[in-house]
């Protein structure tokens, strides 16, 4: 950081374009498909386990 004559720090602009920008996976089409698929699989597994438990008489 640089200082001016009054001993105050001056912010310097940092142009670090070498680092990759983080992109949220949900914003892409593939990310949305994966999330919806996982949510449906979890819901179906819960329903199937409830059906199996009801058939065995444990519910």
TrEMBL record:
UniProt keyword terms in alphabetical order: Membrane, Transmembrane, Transmembrane helix
Source taxon at top rank: Bacteria
Keyword Membrane belongs to the record: yes
Sequence intervals crossing the membrane: 33-56
Feature: compositional bias, Basic and acidic residues: 1-19
Annotated region described as Disordered, given as residue ranges: 1-24
Protein's name in the database: DUF4044 domain-containing protein
Naturally occurring in which organism (per UniProt): Anaeroplasma bactoclasticum
